[in-house]
Design brief:
mainly alpha, two-stranded parallel ribbon, binds zinc ion, single chain, 4 strands
Length: 274
Protein backbone atom coordinates (compact mmCIF):
# COMPACT_ATOMS: atom_id res chain seq x y z
CA UNK A 1 0.00 0.00 0.00
CA UNK A 2 2.73 2.42 1.01
CA UNK A 3 4.63 1.57 -2.14
CA UNK A 4 1.52 2.19 -4.22
CA UNK A 5 1.06 5.59 -2.59
CA UNK A 6 4.69 6.38 -3.31
CA UNK A 7 4.28 5.45 -6.98
CA UNK A 8 1.14 7.57 -7.21
CA UNK A 9 3.02 10.53 -5.83
CA UNK A 10 5.99 9.81 -8.08
CA UNK A 11 3.85 10.08 -11.20
CA UNK A 12 1.56 12.82 -9.88
CA UNK A 13 -0.22 14.80 -12.56
CA UNK A 14 -0.05 12.15 -15.29
CA UNK A 15 -3.59 10.89 -14.64
CA UNK A 16 -5.10 14.38 -14.71
CA UNK A 17 -3.38 15.18 -18.00
CA UNK A 18 -4.69 11.95 -19.54
CA UNK A 19 -8.25 12.73 -18.39
CA UNK A 20 -7.89 16.14 -20.05
CA UNK A 21 -6.76 14.48 -23.30
CA UNK A 22 -9.67 12.04 -23.29
CA UNK A 23 -12.25 14.79 -22.65
CA UNK A 24 -10.84 16.84 -25.55
CA UNK A 25 -10.85 13.81 -27.86
CA UNK A 26 -14.49 13.13 -26.95
CA UNK A 27 -15.33 16.76 -27.78
CA UNK A 28 -13.48 16.47 -31.10
CA UNK A 29 -15.34 13.29 -32.05
CA UNK A 30 -18.67 14.81 -30.96
CA UNK A 31 -18.01 17.83 -33.19
CA UNK A 32 -17.14 15.53 -36.06
CA UNK A 33 -20.31 13.50 -35.58
CA UNK A 34 -22.30 16.75 -35.64
CA UNK A 35 -20.60 17.80 -38.90
CA UNK A 36 -21.33 14.39 -40.44
CA UNK A 37 -24.96 14.70 -39.31
CA UNK A 38 -25.18 18.09 -41.03
CA UNK A 39 -23.82 16.56 -44.24
CA UNK A 40 -26.14 13.56 -44.23
CA UNK A 41 -29.35 14.85 -42.71
CA UNK A 42 -32.39 15.26 -44.91
CA UNK A 43 -34.07 17.32 -42.24
CA UNK A 44 -33.98 20.76 -43.79
CA UNK A 45 -35.20 22.31 -40.54
CA UNK A 46 -31.74 21.81 -39.05
CA UNK A 47 -29.97 23.52 -41.90
CA UNK A 48 -32.58 26.24 -41.84
CA UNK A 49 -31.94 26.90 -38.16
CA UNK A 50 -28.18 27.03 -38.66
CA UNK A 51 -28.45 29.34 -41.64
CA UNK A 52 -30.66 31.70 -39.71
CA UNK A 53 -33.35 33.63 -41.49
CA UNK A 54 -31.75 33.36 -44.90
CA UNK A 55 -32.27 29.78 -46.03
CA UNK A 56 -30.64 30.43 -49.37
CA UNK A 57 -27.41 31.50 -47.73
CA UNK A 58 -25.37 28.34 -48.40
CA UNK A 59 -22.34 30.17 -46.98
CA UNK A 60 -23.83 29.78 -43.51
CA UNK A 61 -23.37 26.02 -43.74
CA UNK A 62 -19.83 26.49 -45.03
CA UNK A 63 -18.96 28.72 -42.07
CA UNK A 64 -20.45 26.18 -39.68
CA UNK A 65 -18.29 23.45 -41.16
CA UNK A 66 -15.13 25.55 -41.01
CA UNK A 67 -15.91 26.44 -37.38
CA UNK A 68 -16.49 22.81 -36.43
CA UNK A 69 -13.31 21.65 -38.19
CA UNK A 70 -11.16 24.34 -36.56
CA UNK A 71 -12.65 23.39 -33.17
CA UNK A 72 -11.80 19.76 -33.97
CA UNK A 73 -8.20 20.64 -34.76
CA UNK A 74 -7.76 22.72 -31.60
CA UNK A 75 -9.17 19.89 -29.43
CA UNK A 76 -6.90 17.33 -31.12
CA UNK A 77 -3.74 19.44 -30.82
CA UNK A 78 -4.26 20.38 -27.16
CA UNK A 79 -5.23 16.77 -26.30
CA UNK A 80 -2.04 15.47 -27.95
CA UNK A 81 0.12 18.02 -26.09
CA UNK A 82 -1.40 16.90 -22.76
CA UNK A 83 -0.95 13.26 -23.74
CA UNK A 84 2.72 13.77 -24.63
CA UNK A 85 3.29 15.60 -21.35
CA UNK A 86 1.64 12.70 -19.44
CA UNK A 87 3.92 10.26 -21.27
CA UNK A 88 6.97 12.25 -20.19
CA UNK A 89 5.86 11.75 -16.58
CA UNK A 90 4.70 8.14 -16.92
CA UNK A 91 5.71 6.45 -20.18
CA UNK A 92 4.21 3.22 -21.43
CA UNK A 93 6.11 0.23 -20.05
CA UNK A 94 4.89 -2.09 -22.76
CA UNK A 95 7.57 -4.26 -24.31
CA UNK A 96 5.21 -4.82 -27.26
CA UNK A 97 6.41 -2.44 -29.98
CA UNK A 98 2.97 -2.04 -31.53
CA UNK A 99 1.25 -1.25 -28.21
CA UNK A 100 4.03 1.20 -27.35
CA UNK A 101 3.74 2.89 -30.77
CA UNK A 102 -0.05 3.26 -30.47
CA UNK A 103 0.27 4.60 -26.91
CA UNK A 104 3.03 7.08 -27.79
CA UNK A 105 1.32 8.29 -30.97
CA UNK A 106 -2.30 8.17 -29.77
CA UNK A 107 -2.56 11.91 -30.53
CA UNK A 108 -1.84 11.23 -34.21
CA UNK A 109 -4.32 8.37 -34.37
CA UNK A 110 -7.04 10.59 -32.87
CA UNK A 111 -6.33 13.30 -35.49
CA UNK A 112 -6.89 10.70 -38.22
CA UNK A 113 -10.11 9.57 -36.52
CA UNK A 114 -11.27 13.19 -36.22
CA UNK A 115 -10.65 14.17 -39.84
CA UNK A 116 -10.53 11.21 -42.25
CA UNK A 117 -14.26 10.22 -42.07
CA UNK A 118 -15.46 13.80 -42.61
CA UNK A 119 -12.91 14.23 -45.41
CA UNK A 120 -14.15 11.10 -47.20
CA UNK A 121 -17.77 12.23 -46.87
CA UNK A 122 -16.92 15.65 -48.32
CA UNK A 123 -15.28 14.02 -51.33
CA UNK A 124 -18.43 12.06 -52.06
CA UNK A 125 -21.31 13.59 -53.93
CA UNK A 126 -23.34 15.91 -51.83
CA UNK A 127 -25.88 18.42 -52.97
CA UNK A 128 -25.98 20.47 -49.79
CA UNK A 129 -22.80 22.32 -50.61
CA UNK A 130 -21.87 24.13 -53.78
CA UNK A 131 -18.86 22.71 -55.68
CA UNK A 132 -16.91 25.77 -54.63
CA UNK A 133 -17.82 25.33 -50.94
CA UNK A 134 -16.86 21.65 -51.18
CA UNK A 135 -13.46 22.53 -52.63
CA UNK A 136 -12.87 25.02 -49.84
CA UNK A 137 -13.86 22.46 -47.20
CA UNK A 138 -11.71 19.68 -48.63
CA UNK A 139 -8.74 22.09 -48.59
CA UNK A 140 -9.55 23.14 -45.00
CA UNK A 141 -9.75 19.49 -43.88
CA UNK A 142 -6.43 18.70 -45.59
CA UNK A 143 -4.64 21.68 -44.03
CA UNK A 144 -6.06 21.04 -40.55
CA UNK A 145 -5.27 17.32 -40.79
CA UNK A 146 -1.65 17.91 -41.77
CA UNK A 147 -1.27 20.68 -39.17
CA UNK A 148 -2.76 18.74 -36.30
CA UNK A 149 -0.93 15.51 -37.16
CA UNK A 150 2.43 17.28 -37.26
CA UNK A 151 1.68 19.00 -33.95
CA UNK A 152 0.57 15.71 -32.40
CA UNK A 153 3.45 13.42 -33.39
CA UNK A 154 5.71 12.53 -30.49
CA UNK A 155 9.04 13.02 -32.27
CA UNK A 156 10.94 11.84 -29.21
CA UNK A 157 8.95 9.10 -27.46
CA UNK A 158 9.88 8.50 -23.84
CA UNK A 159 11.08 5.19 -22.39
CA UNK A 160 10.50 4.57 -18.68
CA UNK A 161 13.54 5.79 -16.79
CA UNK A 162 15.25 7.43 -19.75
CA UNK A 163 16.80 10.89 -19.46
CA UNK A 164 13.58 12.67 -20.56
CA UNK A 165 11.49 10.74 -18.04
CA UNK A 166 13.95 11.36 -15.19
CA UNK A 167 14.25 15.03 -16.12
CA UNK A 168 10.45 15.48 -16.10
CA UNK A 169 10.05 13.64 -12.79
CA UNK A 170 12.83 15.68 -11.18
CA UNK A 171 11.34 18.94 -12.49
CA UNK A 172 7.97 18.02 -10.98
CA UNK A 173 9.42 17.22 -7.58
CA UNK A 174 12.18 19.82 -7.22
CA UNK A 175 12.10 23.60 -7.58
CA UNK A 176 14.44 25.40 -9.97
CA UNK A 177 16.44 26.70 -6.97
CA UNK A 178 17.23 23.11 -6.03
CA UNK A 179 18.49 22.28 -9.52
CA UNK A 180 21.68 23.04 -11.42
CA UNK A 181 21.45 23.40 -15.18
CA UNK A 182 24.15 23.44 -17.85
CA UNK A 183 24.36 26.00 -20.68
CA UNK A 184 21.88 23.94 -22.73
CA UNK A 185 19.31 23.93 -19.93
CA UNK A 186 19.87 20.26 -19.03
CA UNK A 187 19.73 19.26 -15.38
CA UNK A 188 23.25 18.62 -14.04
CA UNK A 189 23.84 15.62 -11.78
CA UNK A 190 26.90 14.23 -10.02
CA UNK A 191 28.23 10.74 -9.53
CA UNK A 192 31.30 9.12 -8.07
CA UNK A 193 33.75 6.59 -9.40
CA UNK A 194 32.40 3.63 -7.47
CA UNK A 195 28.82 4.69 -6.68
CA UNK A 196 25.84 3.55 -8.67
CA UNK A 197 23.72 6.60 -7.87
CA UNK A 198 23.37 9.97 -9.48
CA UNK A 199 23.03 12.99 -7.21
CA UNK A 200 21.34 16.37 -7.49
CA UNK A 201 23.34 17.86 -4.65
CA UNK A 202 27.06 18.09 -5.27
CA UNK A 203 27.58 19.04 -1.64
CA UNK A 204 25.37 16.34 -0.13
CA UNK A 205 27.18 14.91 2.89
CA UNK A 206 27.53 11.48 1.31
CA UNK A 207 29.41 12.68 -1.76
CA UNK A 208 30.79 16.04 -0.64
CA UNK A 209 34.19 14.58 0.22
CA UNK A 210 34.53 12.28 -2.73
CA UNK A 211 37.64 13.02 -4.76
CA UNK A 212 36.26 11.33 -7.85
CA UNK A 213 33.12 13.34 -8.53
CA UNK A 214 32.00 13.62 -12.13
CA UNK A 215 29.18 15.86 -13.30
CA UNK A 216 27.06 15.64 -16.40
CA UNK A 217 23.55 15.50 -17.77
CA UNK A 218 21.09 12.78 -16.79
CA UNK A 219 21.69 11.14 -20.16
CA UNK A 220 25.42 11.04 -19.47
CA UNK A 221 24.84 9.68 -15.96
CA UNK A 222 22.64 6.87 -17.30
CA UNK A 223 25.11 6.09 -20.07
CA UNK A 224 27.82 5.86 -17.41
CA UNK A 225 25.71 3.29 -15.57
CA UNK A 226 24.53 5.66 -12.81
CA UNK A 227 20.88 4.67 -13.02
CA UNK A 228 19.91 4.90 -9.36
CA UNK A 229 18.39 8.13 -8.01
CA UNK A 230 20.25 8.88 -4.74
CA UNK A 231 18.13 7.95 -1.72
CA UNK A 232 19.02 11.25 -0.04
CA UNK A 233 19.29 14.11 -2.51
CA UNK A 234 16.98 12.58 -5.18
CA UNK A 235 14.73 10.91 -2.61
CA UNK A 236 11.52 12.25 -4.16
CA UNK A 237 11.86 9.93 -7.14
CA UNK A 238 13.66 7.01 -5.51
CA UNK A 239 10.47 4.90 -5.86
CA UNK A 240 10.98 4.82 -9.61
CA UNK A 241 11.14 1.24 -10.82
CA UNK A 242 14.86 0.60 -10.91
CA UNK A 243 14.32 -2.41 -13.16
CA UNK A 244 12.80 -0.09 -15.74
CA UNK A 245 15.83 2.12 -15.85
CA UNK A 246 18.32 -0.71 -15.83
CA UNK A 247 16.33 -3.03 -18.07
CA UNK A 248 16.21 -0.53 -20.87
CA UNK A 249 19.82 0.49 -20.69
CA UNK A 250 21.18 -3.01 -20.16
CA UNK A 251 22.10 -3.41 -23.82
CA UNK A 252 23.69 0.03 -24.05
CA UNK A 253 25.58 -0.58 -20.86
CA UNK A 254 27.06 -3.86 -22.01
CA UNK A 255 29.01 -1.94 -24.62
CA UNK A 256 29.65 1.08 -22.46
CA UNK A 257 30.97 -0.83 -19.47
CA UNK A 258 34.15 -1.80 -21.27
CA UNK A 259 35.08 1.84 -21.55
CA UNK A 260 34.34 2.53 -17.89
CA UNK A 261 37.39 2.53 -15.69
CA UNK A 262 35.33 1.05 -12.86
CA UNK A 263 32.14 -0.93 -12.94
CA UNK A 264 29.45 0.71 -10.81
CA UNK A 265 28.70 -1.32 -7.69
CA UNK A 266 25.53 -1.72 -5.67
CA UNK A 267 26.78 -0.60 -2.29
CA UNK A 268 26.22 3.10 -1.82
CA UNK A 269 28.34 3.16 1.30
CA UNK A 270 31.36 3.04 -0.98
CA UNK A 271 30.51 6.61 -1.89
CA UNK A 272 31.50 7.62 1.60
CA UNK A 273 34.80 5.83 1.40
CA UNK A 274 35.71 7.21 -2.00
ZN1 LIG B 1 22.89 12.26 -3.10
Amino acid sequence: MAEKEGKKNLYKGAGGLRIGSVILWILAIAAEVFAIYLLLTTNEEVIFKLAGSNYNDTNALLYWFIGILVFDAICCIVAALLWKKANRIKPSKSKNKFVKLVWDQLGVIMCLVAFIPIGILLLRNNDKLSPKAKKILVAVVAILLVGSVSASIDYNPVEPGDAQNLETLIERHYSEEELTRDENGNIVVWWTKYGKSFHLDENGYHIADSATKTSGTLKEAIEAGRTDPCDYCVAEIKDLNKEDIEGIYEEDLEGAEESLDAEPVEDESLDDAA
